[in-house]
């Protein structure tokens, strides 16, 4: 159940990306890391078939765990279908985003309306059949959306969606929160260093809603673990751990 958000409240939203059988042990580690700070209020961003070779199969142990997380109160978001970007991008802007903003992971950046709609419908069905409840919303891999994806989200009438700089409702076209999300990158030493600097600054930002997104590779780097802990410890001083659905009120 969503809790009424008072206009003066400062909120903390926590999410685990790339929830998949491929990263089951890393997801467990991330839940252990976040739970002392936010309890069950963790958004789980689920990839139905990561890179086309890690499907979530109904009746499997991982599917049972996914249902258990939903039953415990975690919000279950659809997070693409394959996560991998295999589109042929038509514009220079999209090609640059695909190359520099993510390592080939922006699946929904170059999809047409028809392609995006099919993947959304199929992914939604996989998750909802397993959990027995509606998905909380849709968040694109790498937070990257092309025009086709945005149109497909509106047609699918998702209550919630998110990109790097906002949370909004595709169903109502209403912006629900704004400000950059805190996340970490570790593909290169330069990205790791820059994400540590950004997290250190953003955790002090005067945002009403602070969003923090973690990824499976984060658990492999002690520096990132310490930064994640510092971010949640700081947020706990004056923020309430919330669910994305709370923003709808």
From TrEMBL:
UniProt xrefs under InterPro entries: DUF2334, Glyco_hydro/deAcase_b/a-brl
CDD domains to which the protein is assigned, alphabetical: CE4_u10
Name this protein carries in UniProt: DUF2334 domain-containing protein
Protein species of origin: Sphingomonas limnosediminicola
Taxonomic placement: Bacteria, Pseudomonadati, Pseudomonadota, Alphaproteobacteria, Sphingomonadales
Gene3D superfamilies from the UniProt entry: Glycoside hydrolase/deacetylase (3.20.20.370)
Pfam families in alphabetical order: DUF2334
């Amino acid at each position: 159940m969503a809790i009424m958000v008072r206009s003066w409240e400062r909120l903390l939203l926590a999410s685990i990306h790339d929830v998949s059988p491929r990263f089951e042990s890393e997801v467990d580690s991330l839940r252990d890391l976040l739970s002392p700070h936010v309890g069950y209020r963790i958004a789980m961003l689920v990839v139905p078939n990561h890179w086309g070779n890690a499907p979530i199969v109904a009746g499997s142990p991982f599917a049972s765990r996914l249902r258990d997380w939903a039953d415990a109160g975690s919000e279950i978001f659809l997070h693409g279908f394959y996560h991998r970007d295999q589109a042929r991008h038509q514009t220079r802007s999209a090609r640059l985003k695909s190359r520099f903003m993510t390592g080939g992971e922006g699946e929904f950046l170059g999809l047409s309306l028809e392609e995006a709609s099919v993947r959304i419908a199929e992914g939604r069905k996989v998750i909802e059949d397993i959990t027995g409840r509606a998905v909380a919303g849709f968040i694109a891999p790498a937070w990257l959306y092309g025009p086709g994806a945005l149109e497909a989200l509106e047609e699918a009438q998702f209550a919630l969606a998110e990109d790097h700089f906002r949370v909004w409702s595709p169903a109502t076209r209403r912006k629900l929160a704004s400000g950059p999300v805190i996340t970490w990158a570790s593909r290169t030493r330069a990205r790791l260093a820059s994400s540590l600097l950004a997290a250190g600054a953003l955790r002090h930002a005067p945002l009403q809603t602070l969003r923090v997104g973690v990824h499976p590779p984060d658990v492999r780097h002690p520096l990132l673990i310490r930064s994640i802990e510092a971010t949640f410890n700081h947020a706990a001083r004056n923020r309430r751990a919330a669910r994305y659905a709370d923003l709808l009120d």
